[in-house]
Amino acid sequence: MAFGEFDLIDTYFTHRWPKRDDVVKGVGDDAAILTLPSDSELIIATDTMVSGVHFDEQMPARAVGHKVAAVNLSDLAAMGAEPAWLSLALTLPEMDQEWLEGFSHGLREICDYYDCHLIGGDTTKGPLTLTVTAHGFVPQGTALRRDGAKPGDWIYVSGSIGDAGLALAAQQRKVQISDSHYRRVLERLYFPSPRVALGQALRDIASSAIDISDGLKADLGHILQASNVGARVDVDELPLSLALTESVTAEDAIRYALHSGDDYELCFTVPESRRGVFDTVLARHPAKPTCIGRITSEANKLRLERNEEPWQGADEKGGYDHFG
């Protein structure tokens, strides 16, 4: 008997998944039935990954499963949300059970870690395309947004940035790096860690936030536009990994940090009045944030500086744009 669509769903996406008490009905009906906690607001994010655009045949199926969930969970993290449920729309060119086993394993691993329940979706035949919708919630009125930054707020970035861009460049043979550094940055590219705990910790502290998916310059620009403010960023303060600084020149390391995407760290702003609370709450956070600059009153003006002078590489284009 042929292995069909419903066998696929039953084998890879119905069993062995984390269960949540707030899922009344998940996979197996026309729609899911969920219970939202009282006094909460629902946060929803959707992202699509297309073969040949977001990944290629070099990317292991397990990594594809992890990343398609991680990029959505990173959006929830930027809103300060607690992840709860995922739905998956999966388009396959053919029935490849080995690929499906790896993909579902990677997806299930990250769902287990963040206590997410797969609640449904769709399967179709066509060019390999994956769309995940992630659902989470926040206490009413506490969601982080892009439009709250004010002049004088401090700008922070979690973790380190530029690593995923370096991995992609090395993969495309645009740069040569050591095997040890390549393994580290490839892990960042294939298995990003959404900063869910940090996002929740920032709910009563940060004035604005965004995840870094298209590059710091472009994503910080979204905060500036939404908040109608400007920013000064000291490029010498950008959080760079040893793998990045030992693999390329100092100027190129800054460019990777500013312009390459797929890091899925958080960029956020903190008012001066909340810095003491921020330092206390996040002093021991594993993705310890770095202060890189300050919000100004110049609407939509991002000034990149070194030693309080304009940085010479500042005129380069922004981050990734599908239609740019």
TrEMBL record:
InterPro entries: PurM-like_C_dom, PurM-like_C_sf, PurM-like_N, PurM-like_N_sf, ThiL-like
Pathway assigned to this chain's UniProt record: Cofactor biosynthesis; thiamine diphosphate biosynthesis; thiamine diphosphate from thiamine phosphate: step 1/1
UniProt: Mg(2+) 5 binding residues: 214
Amino-acid positions noted as binding Mg(2+) 2 in the UniProt annotation, renumbered to this chain: 47, 75
Positions bound to Mg(2+) 3: 30, 75, 211
Transmembrane segments: none
Keywords: ATP-binding, Kinase, Magnesium, Metal-binding, Nucleotide-binding, Thiamine biosynthesis, Transferase
Catalytic reactions of this protein: thiamine phosphate + ATP = thiamine diphosphate + ADP
Keyword set includes Cell wall biogenesis/degradation: no
EC class name: transferase
Residue numbers binding Mg(2+) 1: 46-47, 122
Domain PurM-like N-terminal, residue spans: 28-138
GO molecular function, one term: thiamine-phosphate kinase activity
Gene3D superfamilies in the cross-refs: PurM-like C-terminal domain (3.90.650.10), PurM-like, N-terminal domain (3.30.1330.10)
Binding site for Mg(2+) 4: 30, 75
EC number: 2.7.4.16
Residues bound to substrate: 54, 262, 320
Note: Reaction mechanism of ThiL seems to utilize a direct, inline transfer of the gamma-phosphate of ATP to TMP rather than a phosphorylated enzyme intermediate.
Family, similarity comment: Belongs to the thiamine-monophosphate kinase family.
HAMAP family: TMP_kinase
Name of this chain's protein: Thiamine-monophosphate kinase
Organism classification: Bacteria, Pseudomonadati, Pseudomonadota, Gammaproteobacteria, Alteromonadales
